[in-house]
Specification:
three-stranded mixed sheet; globular; single chain; about 10% strand; 3 strands; mainly alpha
């Protein structure tokens, strides 16, 4: 079976990002039903030294939509930590990323496989090929942050299960 860069990256982002939107909505509804303000979840963490939900969602989106944009531009940097995102803003961020990624064509993404890219982290620079960056750096980070966001909400009592994380699998029609 041949797999393309588009299949491995964008199709994966488009399976998990709607699930992130779904678990955010399910957690919001649960908070409202139990008399909790959903805004109280935005800064929730698993551990004191780990990023809060807000940063997990921003990073999930950044390692999907931002990774593709970074490869196109030849430069990827950590996301801006806009503290102004409220719960609804995080939900919109995810929905906008799904819309943007849905508009990409396979040919457009597959053409990025050999494109040079620099990942810049402060003064440190790491050179990548586009495909290697997406598959060996961005996708693992994407899954890490999507999973951690799920875990935060689950730990705060949201009635989430495995299917809430997995999204719609690519089943044979």
């Amino acid at each position: 079976m041949a797999i393309t860069l588009y299949d491995a990256s964008v199709r994966t982002y488009l399976q998990i990002l709607p699930a992130v939107g779904g678990y955010l909505e399910k957690a919001r509804a649960h908070a409202v039903e139990t008399g909790r303000d959903p805004e109280s979840l935005v800064e929730a963490r698993l551990c004191d030294d780990q990023w809060p939900l807000r940063s997990q969602v921003i990073s999930t989106v950044h390692h999907a939509r931002g990774a593709i944009a970074g490869v196109k531009a030849g430069l990827f940097r950590p996301p801006l930590w806009d503290g102004q995102f409220d719960y609804a803003g995080l939900q919109k961020l995810v929905a906008d990323a799904v819309a943007e990624l849905s508009a990409l064509s396979p040919d457009e993404v597959n053409a990025l496989e050999d494109k040079d890219l620099i990942f810049e982290l402060g003064p440190r620079q790491m050179p990548f090929r586009g495909g290697d960056f997406l598959l060996s750096f961005s996708l693992p980070n994407f899954y890490f942050h999507a999973t951690t966001g799920y875990d935060i909400l689950r730990a705060k009592g949201a009635p989430l299960g495995k299917r809430d994380f997995m999204g719609a699998p690519r089943i044979r029609a």
